[in-house]
Fold this protein.
Amino acid sequence: MMRGGKDAFRPRPEDHFTFGLWTVGNPGRDPFGEPVRPPLSPIVIVRKLAELGAYGVNLHDNDLVPPGASASERDKIVREFKQALADTGMKVPMATTNLFSDPAFRDGAFTSSDSRVRAYALQKTLAAIDLGVELGATTYVCWGGREGETNAAKDPRTALAWYRDAINYLCEYVRSQRYDLRFALEAKPNEPRGDIFLPTTGHMLAFIYTLDHPEMVGVNPELAHERMAGLDFSHAVAQALEAGKLFHIDLNGQQVGRFDQDLRFGSDDPKGAFFLVKLLEDAKWSGMRHFDSHAYRTEDESGVWDFAAGSMRTYLILKDKVARFNADPEIQQLLAELDGGKSSARVPFSELRNTKFDLAALRSRGYAYERLDQLTMELLLGVR
Ligand code: GCO
Ligand code: MN
Ligand code: MN
């Protein structure tokens, strides 16, 4: 449906927009500078995002419970956080573990050369799974931010086997607890210095089918991560959708060939963002539209909320453009004219062997993609 009226692009919980506590909570620290914003408490984040029309928040264990908190401190924090969720109707659909901040993970977590670190990473993840499930999460993201720092130390095959053992162990834990939880593996090609094992969504998909319980594991593709590798994000997401493996998605903005920028969704490459929204909406994907991005370092708190509101608004504007694209007679006419015959996929080999093709016609035809693309651009630029 195309939207009209003055609240046309106002987000609502049914739109399934979520933010990480770490995204709006990002204080603006970067490799060259200190934080520029004071920390925001998880409760303030929940209340403000609810006001803006989000569906929920996602979190790493330590976004909510600081490392080293005692059991009673943990329980108090969780109780107060749950109260904020109940007061606002906000949900926690996804949870994850911080396996990258602690210096213990300097050689990775599931692929650290030190088996004690690998065991500690699993112990931390079991506790974080319990926390996520307690908050209602049904998706658990695994992102290996520090897996793969240097090749001198280990055979990558060994590291991948450790990685596999870890995910298998976690699946076994979830089964033993009878949790309603699925894993979503998030690929990223590299950090500023280190490479990361399983660098793209395609690598993750191949890896999943080597696990003990592939049915419990899907992917969490991130726009910025595929773009960093110079890839077309929609193609990665389409492959995941087709395989029934799109369990979650991280939306943001990113220029090709840079380290991750985590820009506001659609603020870079709006055309790519449009085709992504088109893919998700045409597929009627029912999952969460999660924004894994943060405000410019120039911003104060009000700029952070402008960033959050803008992320959702841009998605809804693009969704409206998708409806216009799908209803545009000229665009639809061009699409309808594309195919000139029947597919050979199922015809008997003998029939295909004897088919006569008008090769002169096939060789000389034009596809009118210039017109189609220009019409798409005019629609996006607001003159159509
Ligand atoms: C990054 C990642 C993270 C993960 C998050 C959830 O580049 O820093 O995208 O933001 O998504 O840790 O696992
Ligand atoms: Mn990222
Ligand atoms: Mn991410």
